[in-house]
Amino acid sequence: MLIFWRLILGHLLADFTFQTNAVNAWKRRNVWGMLVHCGMHPVIYAVLTFPYLGRDWVQVQGVGVPGWACILLIFIFHFLEDEFRIFSIFKYNSPDNTLFFIWDQTVHYACIFIFIPIGLGDLSQGWFPEKWPILMILGIVVTHFATVLLYFFEKDMVGANYPNFDEKYLAMGARLVLMMCFLLPGTWWAIPALGWMVNLLYMRYRRVMDFSWFSLSFGGLLSAACGVAARLIYYAPSPYLN
């Protein structure tokens, strides 16, 4: 599973962290913007999996497919899926809603799953052979990924607009701090985590932060869930985690 988690991390970095509002708007206008967006993926994949690019990741009818070729195929599939999504939205007025977003992401992850290296993807080293990619994945989930997911939820429910710069990064910071509280050592880590949640609720109540109650509640639950997962991974005694 070593390569799989690095590819998932690469996807989240390219599809969320490094996809700015300008890139997102550009890819919706013309194919060049789409190529720039999709082109980020193989570059980041190659950086994260560089030591394994020359090894065969999968076997097709007895013929090995090296890592660099798998990355190229993932890039092609990603481009086709994103083009299909944009084409459907603008040509056939398909709703750009939560379900379409989840469908789009599911297809991307399925394409990555296809190329789990047989030799590198077995479970001889456990489900989580490395800590750092998982922790980074969880960090992106509570920041950039959660921002987009919450936007779609609230757009579908109340017609909300995409958050502005200050609101976006203040909310991401609040969720990340909550998740990081779960990584504090010792047995008293729950106190700062609970204290931070109470602080966020108080600031929302006093209108110091103008977040919706849904955003605050769902974001808090997601951050807590990712925090628990991060703590389990970080402090796991398994020799397969390093």
Structure description:
There is one protein chain. The protein contains 9 helices and 2 strands. By secondary structure, it is mainly alpha-helical. The protein has 2 domains: 2-122, no CATH class; 134-234, no CATH class. Strands 1-2 form a two-stranded antiparallel sheet. Helix 1 (2-17) packs across helix 6, helix 6 (132-158) crosses helix 7 and helix 7 runs parallel beside helix 9 (213-234). The radius of gyration is 20 Å and the shape is flat.
The count of β-strands is 2
Largest sheet: 2 strands, antiparallel
Distance between the termini: 14 Å
Overall helicity? 55-70%
Series of secondary-structure elements, N-terminal to C-terminal: HHHEEHHHHHH
- Average pLDDT confidence is 88
Provide the β-strand percentage band.
under 5%
The radius of gyration is 20 Å
- Tally of structural domains: 2
Low-confidence stretches: none
Total helical segments: 9
Give the overall form.
flat
Broad structural category: mainly alpha
Order of the strands making up the biggest sheet? 1-2
Helix-strand blueprint:
Layout: H1 2-17, H2 21-29, H3 31-48, E1 56-60, E2 63-66, H4 67-91, H5 98-114, H6 132-158, H7 165-181, H8 190-205, H9 213-234
Antiparallel strand pairs: 1-2
